[in-house]
């Protein structure tokens, strides 16, 4: 049984990461009535620190979000700690608690999940010494013994990038077949190639010690980079029929509008490659466009009633 509509907002933002909070900050300062709904499971929770966010480099992710929440509350933004069960076509949002809130506009900033390779040790060490982004964590592990676990056609590209942070680099082909051209690219940089399927990442005393292959070979490594499959949390957008691009991601225009009237999106849910600072910036830009969209609607309503 549906709950009753508890309150109507100008904007309901689903997702309280940096994108959602950035949008909330802009809209709150624009004197809009805003609610941010967040279930409390940020993607970067496994990481000890967030990097590359100017003035906040090295901050624990949880602390970054706490600061963001404090800032938006100063502009009367309501933070609702709850999980969204359903987004309706009438722009009402049903929460797990039974509460229902509505918005003139809905913003979805629900991010994504990292689908990790099914190799023992990867999930357990992810965010510590199993990493995916050298721009996020490369400085902290620079000059250590690196490995790259190949899981897709993008793994060679990843290896070419992480080589910038350590020249002691081993590329584990795992389940991938490398072309002669890719092999030449890697070996030309001095990257060691190890063929054969990986059976596990070895861990001792709460740290990665190396990579073990199914044939028993063991290669000592301090850090392993992997390429997760990015899976956007776009279920709610799909519920209301948002169109997708040819690649399968939710389609938005340059300002963040979906094809569904009143529904906007920003951050990793539409751009899986966006880093924290990029997601925050994109959400800022989206929020300014959304506010003007509301301005035009307010103006039209005023003229109609005159």
Provide an overview of this structure.
- By secondary structure, the chain is an alpha/beta fold.
- It folds into 2 domains: 5-114 and 229-305, 3-Layer(bba) Sandwich (FAD/NAD(P)-binding domain), CATH 3.50.50.60; 117-225, 3-Layer(bba) Sandwich (FAD/NAD(P)-binding domain).
- The protein has helices spanning 18-29, 61-73, 122-125, 134-137, 155-162, 180-188, 235-239, 276-305, and strands spanning 5-14, 34-38, 78-81, 84-87, 92-95, 100-108, 112-115, 130-131, 146-149, 169-172, 192-194, 198-204, 207-213, 218-220, 223-225, 229-232, 263-265.
- It is elongated, with a radius of gyration of 22 Å.
- 38% of the residues are buried.
- The mean pLDDT is 95.
Full CATH superfamily name of the largest domain: FAD/NAD(P)-binding domain
| Secondary structural class | alpha/beta
In the CATH hierarchy, what is the class of the largest domain?
Alpha Beta
Summed up, the helix count is 8
Query: Could you give the count of β-strands?
Result: 17
Cα(first) to Cα(last) distance is 40 Å
The description of the largest β-sheet is: 7 strands, mixed
Binned strand content: 25-35%
The dominant shape is elongated
Catalytic activity: [thioredoxin]-dithiol + NADP(+) = [thioredoxin]-disulfide + NADPH + H(+)
Protein name: FAD/NAD(P)-binding domain-containing protein
Keywords: Flavoprotein, Oxidoreductase
InterPro entries: FAD/NAD-bd_sf, FAD/NAD-binding_dom, Ferredoxin-NADP_redctase_2
């Amino acid at each position: 049984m549906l709950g009753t509509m508890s309150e109507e907002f100008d904007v309901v933002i689903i997702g309280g990461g940096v994108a959602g909070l950035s949008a909330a900050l802009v809209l709150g300062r624009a004197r809009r009535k805003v609610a941010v709904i967040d279930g409390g499971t940020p993607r970067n929770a496994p990481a000890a620190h967030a990097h590359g966010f100017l003035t906040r480099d090295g901050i624990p992710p949880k602390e970054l979000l706490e600061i963001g929440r404090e800032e938006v509350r100063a502009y009367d933004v309501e933070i609702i700690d709850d999980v969204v069960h359903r987004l309706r076509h009438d722009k009402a949002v049903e929460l797990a608690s039974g509460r229902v809130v509505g918005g003139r506009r809905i913003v979805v900033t629900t991010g994504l999940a990292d689908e990790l390779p099914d190799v023992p040790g990867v999930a357990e060490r992810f965010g510590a010494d199993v990493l995916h982004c050298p721009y996020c964590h490369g400085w902290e592990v620079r000059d250590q013994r690196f490995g790259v676990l190949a899981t897709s056609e993008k793994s060679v590209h990843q290896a070419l990038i992480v080589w910038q942070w350590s020249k002691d680099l081993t590329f584990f082909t795992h389940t991938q077949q490398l072309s002669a051209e890719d092999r030449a690219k890697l070996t030309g940089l001095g990257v060691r190639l190890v063929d054969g399927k990986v059976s596990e990442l070895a861990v001792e005393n709460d740290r990665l010690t190396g990579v073990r292959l199914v044939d028993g070979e063991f290669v000592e490594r301090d850090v392993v980079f992997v390429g997760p499959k990015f899976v956007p949390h776009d279920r709610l957008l799909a519920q209301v029929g948002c169109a997708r691009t040819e690649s399968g991601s939710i389609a938005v225009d340059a300002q963040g509008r979906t094809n569904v009237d009143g529904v906007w999106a920003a951050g990793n849910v539409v751009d899986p490659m966006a880093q924290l600072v990029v997601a925050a910036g994109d959400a800022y830009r989206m929020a300014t466009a959304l506010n003007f969209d509301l301005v035009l609607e307010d103006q039209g309503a005023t003229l109609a009633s005159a």
